[in-house]
What we know:
By secondary structure, the chain is mainly α.
Amino acid sequence: xxxxxxxxxxxxxxxxxxxxxxxxxxxxxxxxxxxxxxxxxxxxxxxxxxxxxxxxxxxxxxxxxxxxxxxxxxxxxxxxxxxxxxxxxxxxxxxxxxxxxxxxxxxxxxxxxxxxxxxxxxxxxxxxxxxxxxxxxxxxxxxxx
Length: 145
């Protein structure tokens, strides 16, 4: 699952664990074993707070993405024993759609970002080709030759 957004990878791990008949906690632990990064560190903190019986709302509110916040809230409900499979399925489709939207916006910006090297490197070279003979002719006429 390399190249998949971290919250989507967590959701898929938990969903797969639920489909195998395992609890939500085993899916979260499986995600933590396989993935490393900023979000997995947050998930590890969240799981530690949950296992200690402490409130996780402060940690969840610190997470930047609303999709990540909702995912952690749903998983918290699943850790308490509620049925969350149907919610995970609907959340999966929403996350995939959000990822596709993010990809399309980045692809829409890409042509403009690629114009920067064109303007910085190729445009001055084109100006030299355009004005080089003109300047050479100008200097030749000033020199009287």
